């Protein structure tokens, strides 16, 4: 299975933007059906942020980020990105990318047990 490594996290003021990237190694996205981003704030459960199909253009977003975040992928480079605009303090969390051999991320906004997680990158939005 692939290994996923996130990058691009950091600290930004409210209203600012960040772009997260996730690169796969040891394999390709062709073995997976969907890619996603999740986040976990301190003291809270991990939650769905966005997902995209590996083939085709299907996307899905959590209500809290719709209109502000955009997920994209580059299958040739085996990368998935999350452009985050108009950031809010409540977006502060560790962000994880994920690759799922099912479409659970798109249909159920969750990962199947066979999904693969990255190690996460911290995003902090100051007010």
Features of the shown structure:
single chain, 127 residues, mainly beta, seven-stranded mixed β-sheet, four-stranded antiparallel β-sheet, 1 helix, 11 strands, globular
Order of helix and strand elements from N to C terminus: EEEEEEEEEHEE
N-end to C-end Cα span: 39 Å
What share of residues are in beta strands? over 45%
The beta-strand count equals 11
Unreliable stretches? none
Task: Describe the largest sheet.
Answer: 7 strands, mixed
Any idea what the shape is? globular
Alpha carbon gyration radius? 13 Å
Class from secondary-structure proportions? mainly beta
Query: What is the number of helices?
Result: 1
Average predicted local confidence, pLDDT: 96
User: What is the helical fraction, as a range of percent?
Assistant: under 10%
Give the SSE layout:
Layout: E1 3-7, E2 10-13, E3 18-25, E4 34-40, E5 47-53, E6 59-61, E7 69-74, E8 79-84, E9 93-100, H1 104-107, E10 116-117, E11 121-126
Parallel strand pairs: 2-11
Antiparallel strand pairs: 1-3, 3-8, 4-5, 4-9, 5-6, 7-8, 9-10, 9-11
Description:
It is built from one helix and eleven strands; from the N terminus they run E-E-E-E-E-E-E-E-E-H-E-E. It is mainly β. Strands 2, 4, 5, 6, 9, 10 and 11 form a seven-stranded mixed beta sheet that branches. Strands 1-3-8-7 form a four-stranded antiparallel beta sheet, with no helix packed on it. Strand 7 (69-74) and strand 8 form a beta hairpin. The termini are far apart. The relative contact order is 0.31. The mean pLDDT is 96.
